[in-house]
């Protein structure tokens, strides 16, 4: 059955949005919609131009018999600034302050619309990077890692604080908590991460950096490579953090006392992604 162009455009856009970073051949689109490849190519040009105009991502085409098109989610600077500003407003509330300088974020990280936006934001940073897997630890960072993995179309792995029988044999490392200075252990299934894999670490909150350092050690144990580290929020920390080079969407300054103080502001994400030459 032949489908009108307006309908094709809607369905092609839907498919590309639901399958980011997946190469789709013009032949498959042509057979699905009963249209010539030249018509499909014109449709993709319209979708590509529209995505770029609204700052939502880029549609790239790959020439050749085995080529096709794929969509890469990518926020424009204007869209990214808008989303980060909204996140700052949501976090900038003294009632979110927890003991030890931590910040309550569970309500935000449980909202699908926020996870979608944060997933696309972080995916924007790695749009041209060679990423094989997303890594997080079994805390509130799991929904974030899943969102990023979805928009990069890559698997995500969960580092455990203790082994599960369903994980099979594991690799474990000891690490020192950056804030409490206590020795802890984390584990990852041997089947989860391949040697030489390129890994992006995702977590919800950065303080002393102990958990990040532990995951870095695990990556080395697997002879894999660290591509980058991202957190939703970065808290203040007195002294030297155990890791450097982490990208944060939000930076939070806090002070506990009779009048609890919390101030949220944009982290270094916008500077790193849109000022340092990545876009």
Automatic annotation (TrEMBL):
It comes from the Bacteria. Residues 111-250 form the Phosphoribosyltransferase domain. Residues 4-73 form the Bacterial purine repressor N-terminal domain. Pfam families: Pribosyltran, PuR_N. The keyword Transcription applies. Keywords: DNA-binding, Transcription, Transcription regulation. CDD domains: PRTases_typeI (cd06223). InterPro entries: PRTase-like, PRTase_dom, Pur/Pyrimidine_PRTase, PuR_N, PurR_Bsub, WH-like_DNA-bd_sf, WH_DNA-bd_sf. Belongs to the purine/pyrimidine phosphoribosyltransferase family. PurR subfamily. Homodimer. This is Pur operon repressor. It comes from Limosilactobacillus alvi. The gene is purR.
